[in-house]
Every structure is written in structure tokens, then in C-alpha cells.
């Protein structure tokens, strides 16, 4: 069976995103933001801050895309494809429900990966330290950051797509954005309070809330703190993977093919 027959929904969804053109604007804005934003800092007085500022800008844009364009496109795509009856039609033609879900999500995964790769190119191509030892540590840190970012981003995109097939696209957009906001900033704001709370409710709240702040390694890039120790990295990746599995399963339960 040809790939055209195997993944028709992926090809249709990807083509639709490409034709609309906002994906190219996203990448162009990413390049411009990473290049121009650091120029607003006093880099002429201290040129050494320019490279870390570019790395910070590149990853800040990646998180900004995860707050805006990526979940919006995911929610709109899921809602539009289901409303048009394409999912129901392809399922009646013999496509499995979970295969359709994978195809639909894969068309957004392409752009999640593109945003992460763009940040990696900026960090490794324009911000690499001159020292061989520092360059090696920098490269490892960038790879760690990319891995953790993808572990955080992909389940949220899955949730946006699948909720889009179940409910209105605005709701499907807001749910992953709210989870991301809670995961990035809730841990920082609530952490000191929950750490002092010895009650079962406080502990349970800390355990069940998303911990996307663990995936934000921007301070380590800016201050050149080096990569995470291997044990810490795998522990962080495990936490994010477990949370991602929960959100993915919730998304699969919400996925709807009937128009």
C-alpha cells in the first residue's frame, strides 16, 4: 500500500497548513526575533552577553509558539477536519481511529519539531562558545533542552487536536494553554507555599499539577551553567514523559470521528 493511501489525512492536513502560509511566517518571525531582540540589550558595552541573549530569545520564541500558534493550529485543525466529516469518511473507508488520530497530530508535530530545530540552529550555529570544553557542554545542554521541550510540547498538541474534534476550537485551544501556563509558572509561584504545606492535599496538588518549569533550561543557557547531570536529566525527562502520557491518554479518550 502506498504512503498516499496509508496517510491521506496527514498529507491533506499538512498541505492545508502549508497553503495557508502562516507556518512560514512563524519560522520567519522566529529567526527575526532571535536575531533582533538581543540587539535591544546593551550588548555594545558588553559584547559577551550577545550570544546568550540570542539563545534566550530563540527558546523564548519556542515557548511563545507553544502558547499561541501551535495549540491554535492544532485545535482549529481537529475541529475543522471533524466538522467536514473527513474523519468519519476515512474511518468508514477502513482507516483505524487511532491511525487517524496519529495522522492528524503528525501534521502539527512537524511544526513543533521545526520550532525546536530552529532554536537549536540558533544556539549551535550562532551562539557556540569558542572553548572546546565549553562548546561540548553547550551542545549537550542544547540537546537536553530540545528533548525536554518536545516532551512538554507534543502531549499538549495532542490534547489540542483531540479536544478540537470533540468541542469548540476555542476551548480546545485554551485547555493546553492553561496547562502550559500552570506548568511553567504555577510551580514557581506555588512551589514555596506547597513545600511548607505538610498536608495530604498540598502534597497531592503538587504531584498532580504539570511541571513544565522543569523543561525550561533557559537560565542554564544564559548563565552558561552547563548541562544537567545525567541522573537529573533522566529524572526530569521521566516526569515530563509521565505527565505527557497522561495528557495523551486523555486526548485519545476525547478524540471523536463522528461529524
UniProtKB/TrEMBL annotation:
List the molecular function annotations (GO) for this entry: ABC-type transporter activity
Organism, scientific name: Roseimicrobium gellanilyticum
Q: Where in the cell is it found?
A: Membrane
Domain ABC-2 type transporter transmembrane residues, every copy: 106-252
The organism's superkingdom is given as: Bacteria
Q: What is its main location?
A: membrane
What parts of the sequence cross the membrane?
12-37, 57-77, 98-122, 142-163, 170-190, 233-255
Q: What is this protein called?
A: ABC-2 family transporter
Record membrane topology: Multi-pass membrane protein
Q: Which is a Pfam family this sequence falls into?
A: ABC2_membrane_3
Keywords attached to this Swiss-Prot or TrEMBL record, sorted alphabetically, are: Membrane, Transmembrane, Transmembrane helix
Amino acid at each position: 500500500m502506498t504512503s498516499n493511501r496509508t496517510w491521506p489525512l496527514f498529507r491533506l492536513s499538512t498541505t492545508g497548513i502549508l497553503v495557508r502560509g502562516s507556518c512560514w511566517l512563524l519560522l520567519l518571525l522566529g529567526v527575526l526575533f532571535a536575531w533582533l531582540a538581543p540587539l535591544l540589550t546593551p550588548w555594545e558595552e558588553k559584547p559577551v552577553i550577545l550570544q546568550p541573549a540570542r539563545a534566550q530569545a530563540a527558546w523564548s520564541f519556542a515557548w511563545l509558539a507553544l502558547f499561541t500558534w501551535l495549540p491554535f493550529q492544532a485545535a482549529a485543525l481537529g475541529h475543522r477536519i471533524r466538522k467536514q466529516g473527513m474523519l468519519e469518511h476515512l474511518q468508514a473507508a477502513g482507516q483505524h481511529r487511532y491511525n487517524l488520530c496519529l495522522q492528524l497530530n503528525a501534521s502539527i508535530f512537524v511544526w513543533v519539531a521545526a520550532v525546536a530545530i530552529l532554536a537549536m540552529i540558533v544556539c549551535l550555529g550562532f551562539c557556540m562558545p569558542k572553548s572546546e570544553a565549553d562548546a561540548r557542554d553547550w551542545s549537550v545542554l542544547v540537546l537536553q533542552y530540545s528533548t525536554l521541550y518536545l516532551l512538554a510540547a507534543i502531549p499538549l498538541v495532542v490534547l489540542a487536536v483531540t479536544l478540537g474534534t470533540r468541542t469548540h476550537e476555542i476551548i480546545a485551544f485554551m485547555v493546553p494553554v492553561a496547562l502550559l501556563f500552570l506548568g511553567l509558572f504555577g510551580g514557581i509561584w506555588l512551589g514555596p507555599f506547597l513545600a511548607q504545606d505538610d498536608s495530604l492535599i498540598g502534597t497531592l496538588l503538587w504531584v498532580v499539577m504539570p511541571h513544565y518549569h522543569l523543561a525550561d533550561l533557559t537560565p542554564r543557557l544564559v548563565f552558561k551553567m552547563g548541562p544537567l547531570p545525567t541522573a537529573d536529566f533522566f529524572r526530569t525527562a521521566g516526569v515530563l514523559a509521565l505527565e505527557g502520557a497522561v495528557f495523551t491518554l486523555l486526548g485519545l479518550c476525547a478524540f471523536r470521528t463522528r461529524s
